[in-house]
Amino acid sequence: MSAYERTIRFADIDAAGFVFFARYLAICHEAYEQSLLEAGIELRAYFVAERTLLPVTKSQAQYLAPLQSGERVRVELSRTRLSDSGYRLDYRLVRLGAAEKLAALVQTEHLAIDLQTLERKPIPAALAQWLAAT
Fold first, then answer.
1. All domains in the chain, ordered by first residue
2. Does residue 134 have a pLDDT over 80?
3. Can you point out the beta strands (E) in 1-134?
4. Which residue from 61, 69, 84, 101 has the least number of CB within 10 angstroms?
5. Nearest 5°: CA angle at 5, between 10 and 26?
6. DSSP annotation of 97
7. Which of 14, 84, 90, 114 is an active site residue?
8. Can 14 be counted among the known catalytic residues?
9. What is the pLDDT of residue 100?
10. What is the pLDDT of residues 2-57, one digit of tens each?
């Protein structure tokens, strides 16, 4: 599991003053990219070098407590390999402060596909190592 912390920005919120539902996925993706960077995988170079795309094939979210601009959030990321070419990422968004509160549970599933043929392919070695790391 890895963790990523950030402050909720004004650009994240909707007219009611709370994080817009789609921004939860964007915040989770920031945590995903940061975890990959910490493992030495920079996505832009990775896609070219490995000739691999990693699209989201499924996503779901459960919103448990609102988040507002200026609040701190920790995104806890865990990963599970599902098959030779697929994996799932599970995110727990925790509102930080005097009393931590679970704000959301988000899950995405990804599939490795060849950049040219757009066919499934095995998960490349560096990503497989990242998936296996705890």
1. 2-132 (3.10.129.10)
2. no
3. 2-7, 52-53, 56-63, 72-81, 86-95, 101-111, 113-114
4. 84
5. 55
6. S
7. 14
8. yes
9. 95
10. 999 999 999 999 999 999 999 999 999 999 999 999 999 998 888 889 899 999 99
